[in-house]
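Quarterly update from the structural biology core.
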Amino acid sequence: MPRALARVLRRSAALLAALASLAPFSVAAELRWDPAPTSPPGALADLLYSPRAEFNGFAPEPEHLPLTLRLKGPLPEGVQPGDVIAAMEASARTWNAVSCAQVAFKTEVQAGEEVSEVEAVELNFEPGIGPNAERIAWTTYPTSPEERASVTLNSTAVVWRPSPDPFQRFAEPERPAVDLQAVITHELGHVLGLSHTLAHNAAAMSAAYLRDGRQRTLSADDKLGLCALFPAEGRECARDTDCPDAGRCVDGVCDPHRGQPGDYCAFDLMHCPEFCLIDHAPTGTGYCSEPCNLDADCPTHFACLPRAEDDASVCTFAPSPELDRAPGGCAHTRAPANAPAAPLLLVVLGILTRRLRRRSTSSRR
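Predicted structure, tokenized:
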């Protein structure tokens, strides 16, 4: 793809007033990013790659790459500088590994108040104030081509962790735990000019924060969006077999394996292109689902039924009576609140057995 076309794409989006940040969340709700503004569709139609990426209009000039990263200011209590620097460097390497794009970041992070003549993307922690009071993070865009964007992580609304902690919500519901590297990877995508993707929910630039750390890695949509902005010669794959872990080759880049409707999912396995329908809150487990209009839109043993919380129709597991009477598996009932640990363990084992059977019988063929 000609570099001139990529330059047109970077500059074609009108300046956006909204910050690319995380939306306010309630304790009971899933963490979600703010709705992303859409990009002008014209330039995308002519691209060699046609990702469903969205662009924010603030991509840096190619000659400014690779961008310098700098950690600045005090850290929240319990957050170690080494953990933040490691997360920043790992996030930089993730974006740099996109074979069809220019190298995006320098991987050595500057730290402290050291004086530097080099413009840098600064990352700092601050308490959220006003509209940012309950946001997890936000990106502030530059006002001129010579400036750099900055990333701010909320020092009070969440507990920052160096690794994913998907089930922490039930232990400390008042302050959800958030994975440093996953959030920094997402915010650096905004720094590079990407907005929230409409492709699917299992992407680094997804509009939903994923508890399992999946946003540490890039989807094909994330990669192709970057390649549209900063094209370079290179391919990650030529066929599906070139991609690890049953991934797919999409326009020369690998897309990680995604769950299909009916596949098992949980807070620690958020691989669904649409969403994970949690049907057993105590264990945080469920199955991949998607919106639907008719039963025919759903896999075998699924029906198109409204969700209780919003009446939106989704594919819902609805086995026939004959399937319920089939031999095999085990039955279970809800344990009373004062039940000892052994019966509770049997309940959990029954749930997992049912998930595995469901996955084998309801995946699309």
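The radius of gyration is 22 Å.
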